[in-house]
Amino acid sequence: MNSETKLSHRERAKALVSQMTLAEKCAQMKYDAPAIPRLNVPEYNWWNEALHGVARSGAATVFPQAIGMAASFDTELMHSVAAAISDEMRAKYNEYRKFGGTRIYQGLTAWSPNINIFRDPRWGRGHETYGEDPYLTGSMGTAFITGMQGDDPDYYKTDATLKHYAVHSGPEDLRHGFDAEADDTDLYETYLWAFRYCIDHAHPAAVMGAYNRVNGEPSCASPRLLQEILYREFKFDGYVLSDCGAICDINRSHHVTANEAESAALAVNNGCILNCGDAYKWLVTAVTAGMISEETITAAVEKLFETRFRLGMFDEDCPYNAIDDQVVECREHLALSRKMAQEGIVLLKNDGILPLQPDMNIAVIGPNADDLSVLLGNYNGTPTKHTTILEGILKAATGKVRYSVGCDILNANPGRWDEHPLREAVIAAQKSDVILLCMGLNPHLEGEQADDFNGALSGDKSTLDLPASQLILINEILQLGKPVVFLNISGSCINLSRVHQECNAVLQVFYPGAEGGDAVADILFGKVSPSGRLPVTFYAADGDLPAFTDYAMKDRTYKYFRKEPLYPFAHGLSYTTFSYENLCFDGKSVSGLLRNTGSMDSGHVIPIFLKDPEDNTVNCRLAGYARLELKAGESARFHIPLCPEIVRRFSCPERLTALAGGVNGIPVPLSTRLPDAGTE
Amino acid sequence: MNSETKLSHRERAKALVSQMTLAEKCAQMKYDAPAIPRLNVPEYNWWNEALHGVARSGAATVFPQAIGMAASFDTELMHSVAAAISDEMRAKYNEYRKFGGTRIYQGLTAWSPNINIFRDPRWGRGHETYGEDPYLTGSMGTAFITGMQGDDPDYYKTDATLKHYAVHSGPEDLRHGFDAEADDTDLYETYLWAFRYCIDHAHPAAVMGAYNRVNGEPSCASPRLLQEILYREFKFDGYVLSDCGAICDINRSHHVTANEAESAALAVNNGCILNCGDAYKWLVTAVTAGMISEETITAAVEKLFETRFRLGMFDEDCPYNAIDDQVVECREHLALSRKMAQEGIVLLKNDGILPLQPDMNIAVIGPNADDLSVLLGNYNGTPTKHTTILEGILKAATGKVRYSVGCDILNANPGRWDEHPLREAVIAAQKSDVILLCMGLNPHLEGEQADDFNGALSGDKSTLDLPASQLILINEILQLGKPVVFLNISGSCINLSRVHQECNAVLQVFYPGAEGGDAVADILFGKVSPSGRLPVTFYAADGDLPAFTDYAMKDRTYKYFRKEPLYPFAHGLSYTTFSYENLCFDGKSVSGLLRNTGSMDSGHVIPIFLKDPEDNTVNCRLAGYARLELKAGESARFHIPLCPEIVRRFSCPERLTALAGGVNGIPVPLSTRLPDAGTE
After folding, report:
1. Do B661 and B609 form a contact (C-beta atoms < 8 A)?
2. How many CB pairs under 8 A join A and B?
3. ipTM confidence
4. pTM for the full predicted model
């Protein structure tokens, strides 16, 4: 491939496309691109998913849901995870392509990651994201994309796609016609920030437009978002595709155009060159009617084929062709998944009850204890083997384990002839030394439009409170006055105010992947010390939040929230204690010494926040972080370069203060005020 | 309790009931009997379930579904299973009663077993039964009941209930108003036979009436079924209760009475003294209106309280009070469940591919491979730990195991944006040495009215064929020409004609309980040799059957079916070979020697059929059976007493022939013709 006589992917694409008719070209701009046998072009379906493992394509390693991976603050591990995912995707593609062409969820173009900002905890799809902070999102996204795309000089291993561009974050049931209004500050500092960061640092192959309008313009056809910002300002040189059905939304729901032909032309003219959905079948009509030029079509299709050449789809000597399907769910990938789950579990409270002694008699209670769906999250694969939380505890515990589902996850009023497990839960609790309450939500209760099993909104939450069925059960159990460890399994903030006050320990488990039960047991029994940190603020009450439809960032996320949260962003405890020594902030980086002053080995994430003491519009901003692993008693020097893009956005860098986040259970971001660079 | 001064249960009941008002008495005749605090009577809900483990009451050992236990032909093991179930039920009751009274699924009165005859394979609830043969049903039922009720001289451990009296066997969607017509031969030889047998041999505490009418009379209020046959002819001295809502059906659906008061009076006057449902709240009105006497009410309530006294509910010294909840899911019970599952799996075909070598590369394909619901059947408990078929294989195999769900269990037309796992299944198959197809139904697709996820009938099947989604998958896999083992997981006959022709081995797994995956792996890899036999005929096609609503037994079950079935009743192969020697039939019993002539230890069931060569109305009748366990090369004498009730029903016993069922894969019942008693 490095031979100088070989044509570039771009040249090969141009040569190939030059032989296509207009109709053939337009058909290639739909996600389900048909074969063109006379040109040896096989059918190719562009839609594949890889959010936390190859999704919807059968057996695959299922890593923790994105929000849980973000909680690890471990970009290196995230990169390894993405490399594993792309190996599995490639291995599967190598098999699927033998059928002569590939169909949905069989290709190399992953429509992941979801780097939208988790603006409001009620958004059902928030658990697909890396949380509420742009820098965390951008850096985790970068680690994911580079892992997915690989480092071959000639070929991409798989394509990664930034989505959903832009501002997208609910409500789900309005998404096809909603107009999200955001001023330029919120747009650049929150909603677009991670897109630009990933484009600059990871060169993603693709960007997917959102369903919603932004300030009046449909995202998938927006002159400002696409032409002005993405292509010109951010210098994106990949391809833009539409969310599924979003082009038809432009006329049907947004009423910005009169028909599908106009919608298609508007989108392509603004640079959205691939369509998930059916609208682009009207492109031939649009060309004929003069809405769009054939040259624009040709350039788009050349771009798409350049992509396919760059993925090695037409080359037998692409090195990624050699990836064998033995990598799918191989031992190494399963171990990676378990490690990521361990690092992504966040210890929110601990009065010393954790870690548990394995010989304790344990009551495991709750609808999420033995549920597969809470391991998997959404956009997931099918693990050949999985370990539920209950199974993980059963494997690790040596004492008696009593289990009761306790209640339905949602329905507080079972029929008179239905099972009523409340008393069983109370009996199990009474007979045990410690009670593990496995509560929270599941990906049917919080998810995408149509994931509306919650009976209320289309996948969104109407409240931060747990469902009434669980509140009743929790009340009964707490009244027993016995030691309780609360495991909140959810992809988003839940109001844990009472739980925090009355339970001895609280763990935030997110959706921890197929190895999740083992990882939870590793944490519960102290095989591993927790080290995750919250990638979102845990608010104390519904009333603390602005309206869900309000896209102003004021009073949202740790940067702008002015009340007291229950657990702040980046909060997370450990089983050991740490101290910071010799901290030094030089305006561009923070360095110092981290000492494990406790009696247990543990990972520790050092998040660095910048604060302008004279700027009241922003509390502080995450500007860098690092994760260290220290044995008991051990210390290590660290040097954390701060993100220049973050430093730059402060109007007066010289008066900045750096804050190193939370040790020993003191909430971040206010635990340790660093001296100015000059004072050391 | 054996003190002569102590009052009998009956005397105590009379004394207690004598203090009750009419309204209090009538209220006690509903299943949800309220407390009477002034008489120290706690609330008691009569409804509990124990079909194959304590059901709907949280954690419990989940044994194989009833149809799978029947396939073991092992009454001794069945008795042990029932003793374990009643221990768990009692242990749970001992905890629940501490709340001051017990609610639904917390009591001691089990509404099990279901001894209806599995008349038609399309009936959704057939898997709750012991199959199509009255003697197998009666003997398995007897083993179950005696295990449930215990052997204390003063107390019943739990009550067992024969249901549904009588004739009940679908269609589910018509059950509330259906009139089942059966002539006296079918009534006595098929539908009522096992009821009488169990009453004679096991003294069940209770009988539950059916929803349907029988020959015009509502079962729960039938003068003929209850007064004439059950009480007078069968000399039943327990209590009769209604199916749930069945009394209101008498006026609302059967239109036999004008209102609920009349329905209630008719039922109680005919001996149905306990009501699941609400109709008996009209009993006070019925007494006032002269439809029923207070003496009848009083006698009924005395009977009900005699039952509660006999269960030890009012005694602190009842020995069963000491059963601790540590018995629930104890090691011994889990081992029993696994053993029952091993014995209940039926090897239908084997060309020698089984047992598998553990180091083979195996493709495990199908929607039932990793599904919990197919372990549990219906009327089930919640196992704390379970092993799916896939998990069992993963634990036992040492080679590479590739898994693909392959298809949806029902839907052959997934949406264009849904997952399409067919190609993945083909890839897994191509890369493996042997393919295990895990297909069949599940308890959502075949079940009770309201279990109508099959989208067609209310829990019943419209066809014996597998769903189209599975037929497509099977076709794709068979076309590969690779070795295939077919695991049919269902509670009923499926048309396996093509599967039998084209697969190398076929296993009927039924719904094998929480340990089912381990049991399947034990069989697949030869840790245990299969020894189960079919408790139902496997027909070859839908067209072989009479109309589902036709209750005449003509052309149904092995006794009356005149075409060639695919697999006959009692068919079942082994991994070893057996021979019968020195067979002797003396008119009342069969004796002989069984020799394990192969190279593997194995259980073997010897079913004995009687045939009158001159009677063409019945093919033959199962009249006895025994199960032996023989090591390779070992032999053992056996003596099987035949059921006198069966022998008696032949008009001319002296011309009877006995047939010993199937060795070495030769289908029963025609493998070995026994010499007449006199000829040896």
Report:
1. yes
2. 85
3. 0.95
4. 0.96
